[in-house]
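Notebook entry, structure prediction.
Reason for the run: the old model in the group folder had no record of what sequence produced it. Starting over properly, with the input documented here first.
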Amino acid sequence: MLRINDIFKLAQDRFRILALSGQHAIWINIDSDKAWPELVRTSEIEKRIFDEELFRTTDPHQELASLSVERGSKAQIIRDQRYDLIAPLLATDDGYYRSGRGQLVQSRSDETGKPRKTLYKNLRQYWQRGAMPNALLPDYRKSGGKGQKKTSKKKLGRPRKISPGTGITADSIIQKMFRLVIDHHYVNDKGNSLAYAHRRFIDMFEAYNPNVRPEDYPTLTQLRYFYHREYEKADRIRFRSNRISYQKDVRPLIGTSTAGVLGPGSRYEIDATIADIYLLSVDRQRIIGRPTLYVVVDVFSRMVTGFYIGLENPSYVTAMSALTTSMSDKTELCANYGLEITPEQWPTVGVPDAILADRGELLGHQIESLEKAFGVRIEITPPYRGDAKGIVERYFRTLQAEFKSFAPGVVTATKVRKQGGKDYRLDARLTLHEFTQIMLASILHRNQHAVLSKYDRDSDIPNDMALTPLNIWNWGIQNRTGRLKNVSEEALRIALLPRQKVHLSDLGVSCFGAYYTSKELLASGWLHRNGDRRVTGLQAAYDPAVADHIYLFPGKDSQEYWICSLTDRSRQFRGKSVWELWASQEEQRKATSAAKVAETTSKRDLENLVSNTIKNAERSRPAINKQQSKAETIRGIRDNRKQERDAQRAKQTKARQPDSSKPKSDVTYLHGKPDDGAFPDFLDELFGDDE
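New structure, fully documented this time:
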């Protein structure tokens, strides 16, 4: 099917169809300066198409149709003048044919006084460029050779009026030097200025051209012109930025996190920060520093699903605490802080499909239990790419904005302000419990009532639905693929607890230097001292907040666990946390290490005393009586011992005589006088079987 303004290519020429009349078409060669419209049969055009001699092609002047011309400009005036000149010739089809075209052009020339050559030129340009008024625009847009390199033997640009010298043309050698100094000194993340690169260029140019006067050296303007001409703007920005900073802060943002998730629970983002506030101890007597804040956010709904606020540093243990909160019912947690909610107000209970986190917290073998047991996909962000978790990163600023305007002890720009200001750390007033209460209330407000004005909604989200996180979550559960999985909270808690390699010994299961046992462990026979080789490669999960119990996994790939309690040998750690256990052990090691120094000194003194005493004894012993045989000497040992013992007894009797000058005192019994005067019997407690 043929259409007016279709472009066809025949051999090396291109033709534009100007008109269709019955079985004929009128076209014109758009590549010839002498072309005129020609009459051709449509059947011939179709035949050439079928014979693969004629092909459709793009219109080289199609941009003229959308070209906007400034009103009152010279180009607009020339276009309108040209069109007004040939408009009467276009009113009839006679202009397409040679027989009628000459008479029309001659008549219009006589009427306007314009030469026929001008009329013919405008007609040809009008037909060849699309048969529209814009086809008569002058080619000003092509003037100047935009984007093309200018070559000249003399220096281009405005001559100098103030600066000395005439300058020099930037030839191919100078341009090569330009590129070398720009690549080496400017297009990198070192922060050097273009003026610095130009000074390095002068060093290179001066060595290569010693006869050129300094006032004629290529200028900074020439270097800048070369830089902007040869380097694309996007490349200039990318080259001048650090690779990590470019990816995080500079590169264009064309995607959205929401587009990559299917519904609630498809992906959680987790991250930690140090809150911008200093807190007090429970008794409000000590400043305890800034707390750690973990936040878990659902990408689809922007719902805060879980959090952790405490004094432990960001780690796997604290991350697991935040994840446990995010996947469990939170009504009891809120009640502990005086906030009564229903499960429908915070419905994020269950295991998500994926968790996106930094490399530090969730990178390692410990997270494998969550992956294998519950099928959670762990996604790790690249190093130094906080923008990969943009949603949760933004929530840190949003949540902390709720208290920064009111709370004392908030971190400011400087610790000690000028003009008599005080250290903001001394303004701390809130305890950890009060701060947690504030943050929890902020999260509840954010989840239920905050309007997400910049949320990128999908087309199927109702226009009349308020875009709050709770509304989006509930709508997604009903209309999208809900990805949360319902699991046992106890099984989830055990799976998220950190793991530790443990080993069996005669004293029980050793974990962090403490010993544990259980009924199942005793029944297994693993602790009996019968010479058999004990089981190795065991692991146990532990709750950092409670050191009294661990969860021993007897099988390598099994989720079965035995709850083991501290033995009496490790009773010193009962009622403590694992962090306190570590602190106690560290203090004990320090005390032992200090005592070892004194022990070494005392041991050395003891060894010197023993050695000197033996040496003195050897020197003091008289010579052996050679008149007495060895047998006679040995037979006298019994009598010698008796004499020495009697002398020692007499000496002790004299030394232990009571002092008659002091009054006698009665015996006081601490636990009452025993009936038979015997000591209590602890045999059952010492050797009885453990229950």
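Summary: Residues 578-620 form the longest helix (43 residues).
The old model has been moved to the deprecated folder.
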